[in-house]
Design a protein that fits this description.
Length: 258
């Protein structure tokens, strides 16, 4: 799963070919579920960018608290799972970012090693997402014009070579040339499903402080590299198949390192 992400340089998010201007944003280094996040989507009125609550609430839900456990949708079941299938067919979105975190289990230790993951040069990227709008079924007629609650979820997939030593899932990063197809509700579902795949471009990952474990901490220091709790390499029996993910001397894991 992916339970934390951020955008340390929100101005660069605007360089993505999103086709719409993002709402005003401030740097974020530890976004957690239930917080407001920028979301690009297609509606009947055209493409727009809104602030949505992270944690998808299906339109049929009785209580919006269901969104507290709906921050991620698995790519292999998103087309069939009742909580996500309607949004997958008609309400796909993009959550712009430039970093995310994942936690690596450490054999024999109770703590997990947090890692920050992103693209080279801290380049921005678009995360594949779903969105829904929810209105209470018992909403009084006097409140009929009240804005519905807009919520979203990230889609996850199998890990690539960088992520495999860290975690068994990763969020889906979309290539910019696929943004329009992903957002368009008319795109055939088999084409959409094919876009749910591990990132195949350059990617870097580095160990960071366990301070990121606290949702109350949202500071640039969270993305500073630290010494890992143990050598950040895969188990001995996996090194031959994951040699490209061996840590560099600077503590970084990098796909396509020379």
């Amino acid at each position: 799963m992916c339970g934390r992400y951020g955008f340390g340089n929100p101005a660069r998010l605007g360089t993505l070919p999103l086709g719409v201007e993002l709402p005003p944003l401030t740097p974020r280094f530890n976004i957690t579920p239930a917080q407001a996040v920028p979301l690009v989507r297609e509606t009947a009125q055209g493409r727009d960018a809104v602030l949505a609550r992270w944690g998808l609430v299906p339109f049929w839900a009785d209580d919006p608290s269901i969104g507290n456990r709906m921050a991620n949708a698995r790519g292999d079941t998103v087309a069939t799972k009742p909580s996500f299938r309607a949004a997958f067919r008609q309400r796909r979105g993009i959550m712009p970012a430039d970093l995310y975190y994942e936690w690596q289990p450490l054999p024999g230790q109770k703590i997990k090693q947090p890692w920050c993951i992103g693209l080279p040069d801290r380049a921005p990227f678009g995360l594949a997402a779903l969105w829904e709008q929810w209105t209470p079924r018992d909403q009084p007629l006097a409140d009929a014009e009240a804005a519905p609650l807009i919520t979203c979820a990230l889609i996850t997939t199998e890990p690539n070579a960088v992520m495999a030593p860290i975690h068994d899932r990763m969020p889906v990063l979309l290539h910019p040339e696929d943004f329009a197809r992903w957002l368009n509700p008319a795109t055939p579902l088999e084409v959409v499903q094919a876009l749910i795949r591990p990132w195949d471009g350059p990617m870097v990952a580095w160990p960071v402080s366990t301070a990121v474990n606290s949702p109350r901490v949202d500071d640039p220091v969270l993305i500073e590299p630290v010494e890992p709790h143990r050598p950040a390499s895969p188990p001995a029996d996996a090194r031959s198949s994951a040699a490209s993910t061996a840590p560099r001397r600077d503590g970084l894991l990098s796909l396509f390192d020379e």
